[in-house]
Amino acid sequence: MEVLATKNLTYTFPGQEAPIFQGLSLSLHKGEFVLLSGESGCGKSTLLNCLNGVIPLIWQGTMEGEVWVEGLNTASSTLKALVQKVGTLWQDVESQLTQLSVEDELIFGLENISIPREEGEERLKSIIPLVGLPREALLQDLSGGQKQRLALGALLAMLPQVILLDEPLANLDHVGAHEFLKFLKTLCQQGKTVLMVEHRLDLAARYVDRLLYMVDGRIAFDLRDRKQIEREEVRKRWAPSRLSVEPEDKPGFSSSPALDMQGLWANYGSHRVWQNINMRLQPGERLALIGSNGCGKSTFLKVVAGIKKGLKSGYERFEILGRPVSKASRPFYSSQMGFVMQNPHHQLFMQNVFMEVALNTKGRTEATDILNLFGLERLASRHPLSLSQGQKRLLAVAASLSHRPKILLLDEPTIGQDYTSLKKMIEVVNYLNRQWGMAVITATHDMQAAKSLADRALLFNNGKVELLSIAEIPQGC
User: Distance between CA 477 and CA 472 in Å, rounded?
Assistant: First the structure.
C-alpha cells in the first residue's frame, strides 16, 4: 500500500533561479525501509522538508507538483495533522530539542497536540527504555549521541506512520548505530515506513530494502540489491585519493611537545568523566579519540582547548606547546589552535563562505588557496548557513585552518560528509599536517576515518583511557 508519494515535484529556493530538483516522482509503501543517499548539496534534506510539509507550510520558495502522505496533500493540510502522520529527525539535532530535561522533551510534542497526560505516560513507558536516559537528566549534560536518541524518542512518541531521518547515524558509535538500524528494521516489520538520508552506507546497506541515489536533484537510480550497494559504496568511499601537489619539506618543528600531560582528569559536577591521562603528543603527530557515546571524547577536546564552562579538570603536569596551561591566556588558545565542533552552526557567522575563511588569513590569495584546497571555491559567495550540513562542516574545517594553527582539534568531522567530501577533507588535513607540522586530534566514531587521520589513538572506556597504536584501533568502537 502506498503511504507516501511525490508527483512531478519541483522546488526552487527564494532568490534562486534554478530549482534544486525538478519533476521528481517517487513512492514509498507500507513497511519499506528506504535509504536516500547522494553527495552533499544534491537536495536530500530539502526533499525531506517537502515530504513532511515544512515546504510549503513554513519555508518560503516555489513548490510545484504534489506530495501525499497517507491520503493527505501536504500543501493543503495543516502541520498538526501532518506531525501525526510523518515524523522527522533532522541533521541538526540540537535545533530540534527545546526543553531542559529528558522527560519534558519527550512529553512536549504530545502536549502540543493535546494528548491526555495519562495516554502520554503510557507512551513514555515504551519510549524511555529506547532512549536509555534518566527522566530527570538535563539536556545540557548529554553527549551528541544521547541527544540524538532523545530526539528520536520524542519523535516516536507521536506515533507517526512515516519516519524521515536525516543522517541519524552521524553521532552514534558503531554498536549504537547497528542497534539503531535493527530498531528501525523492527519498526518497518511492524508496518512503519522509514526513509533515511545517510552517507554511512557500509553500515546501513544490509538493513534497508531500497537505495535511492540522488544526483543533482534527481533520483539517478533505485536499487534493491543490498549486497551490491554495500560493496560498491565501501569501494567508492575508500578508493585511494591524493593531492596533486606534494607537500614541501617539513619545516623545523619546535622541540617542545604539542601536548604534555600527566595525571589529567576531568569532572562534570561530581561525575568523573575520565582520569589519569598520561601522554605526550609531538608536533606533526596525529591522534584519534575513540570510544562509545558519552565516554568523554568531546570533553578531552574541550580541556585541551581551554573551554571550562560546566567542566572541572586537574593534573600533575599539563603543558601546551611548552607553556603550562596555568599561564595560557585565551589569545594563546585562539592563536595556536583550531577547533571544529560537532555542530558547525556554533562557529559560522560571517556573511559568505569567502569571508568565513578570510577572517583569519593574511590576505585574499591565502583565503582563495584554502577554498581551492577544500573544493569550496564555487560556494564562495554563498551564505554559510545556506549550505548543506556536510558543506558547513567542510567550511568549518577550512576556516579553522585559515590561521595555520599548531594544533587542530576535530570533533566528529565525518558527520554529514558524503564520501567524496570526506576523502577531500582527510587528504587536505593530512597534507597540511605534513607541510605545517600541525598536530591533529580527531574525535570520531568512524574507525576507517580514525585510521586515515591518526598515528595513535586514545580509547575512552568507562572513565579509563588506553593509548593504542594505529594497528590496534578496532573495526567498531
Answer: 12
Q: Which of 26, 410, 36, 395 is nearest to 200 (CA)?
A: 36
Q: Are 220 and 214 in contact (CB under 8 A)?
A: yes
As a whole number of angstroms, the distance between CA 168 and CA 106 comes to 18
Residue 227: inside a domain, yes or no? yes
Residue after which a domain boundary falls, among 237, 270, 301: 237
Block residue for cell numbers 598515528 = 455
Residues 297 and 415 in one domain: yes
Residue type, 373: L
Q: What is the pLDDT of residues 177-190, one digit of tens each?
A: 888 888 899 889 98
CB 322 within 8 A of CB 332: no
**Under a CB-based contact definition with an 8 Å cutoff, are residues 451 and 471 in contact?**
no
Same domain, 289 and 337: yes
**DSSP structure class, residue 12:** E
Q: Which residue has the cell 536516500?
A: 36
Question: What Cα–Cα distance (Å) separates residue 73 from each residue in 28, 57, 193?
Answer: 15, 12, 18
The CATH code of the domain that includes 299 is: 3.40.50.300
Return the biggest CA–CA distance within the chain: 69
pLDDT 10s digits, 248-275: 444 445 568 999 999 999 998 888 999 9
Contact at 8 Å (CB) between 166 and 48? yes
State pTM to two decimals. 0.74
| 233 in the same domain as 173 | yes
Rounded CA separation 161/177 (Å): 22
Amino acid making up residue 258: A
Q: Helices (H) and strands (E) in the chain — how many of each? A: 16, 21
Q: How confident is the model at residue 237 (pLDDT cuts 50, 70, 90)?
A: low
Phi-psi region at 456: left, alpha or beta (left = phi > 0; alpha = psi -120 to 50): beta
Mean pLDDT in residue range 205-233 = 81
Residue 350 pLDDT level (bands cut at 50, 70, 90): very high
Distant-in-sequence, close-in-space partners of 137: CB < 8 Å, separation ≥ 6: 101, 102
Q: Which of these three, 203, 237, 271, is where a domain ends?
A: 237
Is the domain of 357 the same as that of 230? no
Q: Is 303 contained in some domain?
A: yes
State how far the Cα of 411 lies from the Cα of 343, in Å rounded to an integer: 9
Domain that holds residue 351: 259-472
Q: State the total domains in the chain.
A: 2
